[in-house]
Amino acid sequence: MRFMSQGMCGATLLLAAGGAAAQSSVTLYGVADTFVQYLDNGGKHSYSVRSGGSTGSLFGLKGVEDLGNGLKAVFDLENGYNINNGAFFADSTAMFYRQSWVGLKHDTYGSLTFGRQYQPSFWAVYFTDPFRGNEVLSPLAAADLAGATDRSTLATQYVSGRTSNSIVYTSPDLRGVHVYAMYALPATVTQPVPVRSGAMLDVAANYSGYGFYAGVGYQYQHGAQETAPLVASAPGLLTTFDLMATEHFTGALAYRVGIVNFQFNYSYNRPKDPAPGAVVAITPAVQVPLASLVHSYSIMELGATIQATPEDVIAIAGIERNVRGVHDNTPGIEVGVDHSLSKRTSLYMRAGYLKNNGTANMSWPGVTAVASGSKQVIAVLGMTHRF
Fold it and tell me: If you average pLDDT over every residue of the chain, what do you get?
């Protein structure tokens, strides 16, 4: 899942809007995050400096204009970047890769927004991932994004976390309940891999109160098309193939007991069956059955977040990605510690382990996928500053 948490803090610039009844505010906010990484990738050891390990490095502008009678105009433009070299994060063609939307919000009736936005299913599960859906080091994001590299699920669509060309309704707070609904029109992207997506429907709801949290989500992705390498020994040989229409079912729970927040989430991803005899032509002489790239799979995560001291948070998560019908599964574990130096600056540590079984090749996002059936060990030290 190209999952990523939002950093929402910063100084507010108030602008007069002409009349006493109408006021506008624009907020500049952002995060600068860097870390040093040690990686054992299937027995190959390396060190590197990377960006966005605790919270994605980002900057954004969000604003609101009071239109009167409880109605407001709202917008959010949010860029992701790599602090180590100043490049755009994930997609060099998108200035606002993370979010770019505008819409109307009413205190009583909720909001209706248009643009590139987080999916409702993302909000259902986000609060139950101890690593907050971080798309660089969260094991949940690693399990979701494995759908883009695992040969058994290449033609099964995965939950990307964000969607372009989308219309989203978000309800107001209904005594702890929030309801979300999205419809997205087809879109085409060229990075990180070329994909022409179909239309998408996503609905979700969550409840939070009395230390308890519950979320459910359903997403339906229409058929799509992707271009990617299918031959491991020839990564430059690209093949275009169909992605099956896919249903995603998500459930999430959390419960706080004292300083410990216990967290659990589960998703099941079910593609439609390909047409009998459908093949993917890698070369005129080499073809593979499309069915070999289409399998259902589940992701389960169990973890906890512990507020050990006012300045220290400990997170732990166990993960398992399991592909149905083939020998393809990956259990893993990750632990992390965050230490706040101030309200805006913190240091963090992460350590994780993934063990691929059978044909599985899951890896942490941004890391070259390991050979099928091998392991991956990661350890990082990092710093985050919010502004």
Answer: 92
Q: Tell me, which fold does domain 10-386 have in CATH?
A: Porin (2.40.160)
pLDDT digits (tens, 9 = 90+) for 165-182: 999 999 999 999 999 999
pLDDT, mean of residues 8-15: 36
pLDDT tens digit sequence for 288-307: 999 999 999 999 999 999 99
Q: How confident is the model at residue 23 (pLDDT cuts 50, 70, 90)?
A: confident
The pTM is what? 0.91
Burial tier of 20 (Cβ tally within 10 Å: 0-12, 13-18, 19+): exposed
Q: What would the two tokens of residue 49 be?
A: 């400096």
Q: Which residues pair with 329 in a beta bridge?
A: 322, 357
Q: Which residue, 54, 51, 36, is CA-closest to 86?
A: 51
Q: Which of 128-142, 202-216, 231-245, 306-320 has the lowest mean pLDDT?
A: 231-245
Closest CA to 192 of 52, 51, 100, 97: 97
List b or e across 274-302, with b for residues whose CB sees 16 or more CB atoms inside 10 angstroms. beeeeebebeeeeebebbbbbbbbbbbbb
The alpha carbon torsion through 221, 225, 231, 233 (nearest 10 deg) reads -100
Tokens of 21: 């009844």
C-alpha distance across the termini of the chain, in Å: 27
Q: How far apart are CA 160 and CA 375, in angstroms?
A: 24
Segments making up each domain of the chain, as ranges: 10-386
Tens digits of residue pLDDT in 207-216 = 999 999 999 9
CB half-sphere exposure, 379, CA atoms < 13 A: 4
> What's the CA gap between 263 and 159, in Å, rounded?
20
> Measured between alpha carbons, how far is 233 from 279 in angstroms, rounded to an integer?
20
Tokens of 216: 């459910």
pLDDT value, residue 308: 98
Query: Distance between CA atoms of 233 and 253, rounded to whole angstroms?
Result: 42
The pLDDT of residue 21 is: 46
Q: Tokens 């073809």 identify what position?
A: 287
| Chain position carrying tokens 């007991």 | 257
DSSP 263-288: EEEEEEEEEPPPPTT-EEEEETTEEE
